Amino acid sequence: MPAPHPATPPAPAPPAPLAGRPLTPVARLLRLCLHGLLAGLLVLAAGRAFAEAAPHAAWTAAACALLAAVYGAGVRAPAVHASARAGAVWLGALGAVWALLLVLSPDALWIAFPLYFLELHLLRLRWAVAAVALTACAAIGSFAAHSGTLRPGAFLGPLLGAAVAVATVLGYQALYRESEHRRRLIEELIATRAELAAAERAAGTTAERERLAREIHDTLAQGLSSIQLLLRAAERALPGGDPALAPALEHIGRARAAAQENLAEARRFVRALTPPDLERGSLAAALERLCAAAPQARFSLSGTPRALPTPYEVALLRIAQSALANVVRHAGAGHAEITLTFMDASVTLDVVDDGSGFDPAGAPRGDGGFGLPAMRARAESLGGLFTVESAPGQGTAVAVTLPLPAEAEPPAGGAATGPTDREVPR
């Protein structure tokens, strides 16, 4: 029998598929090639045994059939691919039948090549390399036993085949892992883009709600409140005892009532457009919930709380959210404190952290930056004062002070129009 020579082995079977994921067409094709190679080699061994009238031709054919049966049973058994122990048991059974076939037929040594790929596919790397080496030694020993001589080809064939199998399988597994990593990155990117789009839609909706609430409060509500005050002044200016002025006073009263009803309706619109964070309670409650979501943040309230116009509450809440977001993303702070302070003529929000700090003079002034321009614009739109104190390595303190609007004078003959009858500073 001629000495075996290195043969070009088939492509390896891919790593076991992820749970719940079907095989790709390429992986399915590679497995079919492996099945076909083993079947062809078994047919070759049995056919040559009968063609050459070997002494143990019938036993060789029976061993080939047994090996095919064991192989087919393992391929159909899900446990072989799911459990390393089950795979090792299956390989042991295949190895035992193959060892019997090696004794009966010299052509059985070629079956070592598909066995290489099975071992590399089912076993851990160190055990797989050891199994491949043992398989190569068995093939070399079978050739030496049947030929009675040792030639270089007897060693080179199985050893080179084993080396090519190991290199091919390891290379394919590396490509497979990289492909899976890229697939996961693409899935994360798609999910992140969807979340970003949803966040942008929600942010746009919230911004539009805030804009509408601010416009209604600063135009319609304030205009109706001014009309009501002017009508009350006109009512006071007219003598009430003159019968000739009674119709005029009656019309002024109706005008005041209509203005009051429309003012109440405008306020209902403003409340309906209030950000969701303020719908469930006061500004202090919203700030407390905001701090509860950040482990390093704490909220404190100072002074006697009082109701604020919706634009004030929205501005203070958004500034607190932006400042706390800066603390979490950029400052690396271990502790942050948000303080809401009510004073006689103003309300102050302070956000202080012990983080890395920065140079306020060198902070970007565009919309990107640290959000400082947006916070300053919110505060100044209500006539407030916005300050930032920070230095590298010394933490950051953000403070915004808004002057409290003066309460409107109660209308004649009735209750006060409520805390929202306030002129917003311009």
UniProtKB/TrEMBL annotation:
Note one Pfam family from the annotation: HisKA_3
InterPro entries noted in UniProt: HATPase_C_sf (IPR036890), HATPase_dom (IPR003594), His_kinase_dom (IPR005467), Sensor_HK_TwoCompSys (IPR050482), Sig_transdc_His_kin-like_C (IPR004358), Sig_transdc_His_kin_sub3_dim/P (IPR011712), Sig_transdc_His_kinase_ChrS (IPR017205)
Where is this gene product found? Cytoplasm
Instruction: Cite the entry's keywords alphabetically.
Output: 4Fe-4S, Cytoplasm, Iron, Iron-sulfur, Kinase, Membrane, Metal-binding, Transferase, Transmembrane, Transmembrane helix, Two-component regulatory system
Please write the reaction equations for the catalytic activity of this protein.
ATP + protein L-histidine = ADP + protein N-phospho-L-histidine
Regions crossing the membrane: 29-51, 57-75, 87-113, 125-143, 155-175
Q: What EC class is this? A: transferase
- Its main localization is cytoplasm
Q: Can you give the residue ranges of the Histidine kinase domain? A: 316-406
Chain positions covered by the region annotation Disordered: 405-426
What is one term from the GO cellular component aspect held by the record? membrane
Q: Where is the composition biased (Low complexity)?
A: 405-419
**Keyword Zinc-finger attributed:** no
Keyword Kinase applies:
yes
Names of the cofactor(s): [4Fe-4S] cluster
Q: Fetch the PROSITE patterns from UniProt.
A: HIS_KIN
Report the EC code(s) recorded for this entry. Answer: 2.7.13.3
**Example of a GO MF term:** 4 iron, 4 sulfur cluster binding
The record's function comment reads:
Member of the two-component regulatory system NreB/NreC involved in the control of dissimilatory nitrate/nitrite reduction in response to oxygen. NreB functions as a direct oxygen sensor histidine kinase which is autophosphorylated, in the absence of oxygen, probably at the conserved histidine residue, and transfers its phosphate group probably to a conserved aspartate residue of NreC. NreB/NreC activates the expression of the nitrate (narGHJI) and nitrite (nir) reductase operons, as well as the putative nitrate transporter gene narT.
Q: What is this protein called?
A: Oxygen sensor histidine kinase NreB
Q: What is the lineage of its organism?
A: Bacteria, Bacillati, Actinomycetota, Actinomycetes, Kitasatosporales
